[in-house]
Amino acid sequence: MKAMINKKTIVVTALVLSLLFVGCSKAADKSDSASNENNKNSTSTTSEDSNAGKSTTENNSKKNNNNKSSQTATQKASASSQEIQDITKKVKDYINGDQGNKPEYQKMHWSKTFLNKVDFVTLYKNYLNNGGKKGDVESFAAYITLNAPIQSDWQEMFKKDLYDTYGEKVVRIEKVQGDGDVYQAYIMKDGKEVPYVGVYARTGYFHG
């Protein structure tokens, strides 16, 4: 009888131990699974944080580069009032002078009246913005000769210049076809209109 009880006790004990072992094993599996999931989430979060940090760094770097480029362009295009005064005087002296002993056909010709009405401040800033070299007198003189706006009252200025120079009154001004800003001026001779000089509307320079 005692032997049977002992056997039952052993069997029951074995079953209890088996159940405990299975329970512990499942708990351990759940713990490992949770740990793996946490590690996975942690790795994912770290990766996202790293990518976000990298993206922020790249954006900041791009902004810094853009700011540097903008600052460089602004510095290049800017000129002090004194610089503009200096370049204005030098360009006027250059155009009104011998222009480095250039032959006549290579010179930039301007009427002094027209040259004195040029907006050097705006043109110099535009010149620098378009890649012009600071302080380059000859280059800037060529730039204004090609790009200075035509004055709205250029015809009246030209008529006065012509009268002061030759004592002739202009009776008609006609655009020369296909020659840009070149015009033909007419005066009266012997009761008839006759062509007298050609004039450049931009620079006011005229010649017969």
UniProtKB/TrEMBL annotation:
Chain intervals for the UniProt region annotation (Disordered): 29-84
The keyword Transmembrane helix is assigned to this record: no
Keywords for the protein's UniProt record, in alphabetical order: Signal
Low complexity composition-biased segments: 33-52, 62-82
Signal peptide (from-to): 1-27
Protein name: Lipoprotein
Organism of origin: Clostridium paridis
Phylogenetic placement of the source organism: Bacteria, Bacillati, Bacillota, Clostridia, Eubacteriales
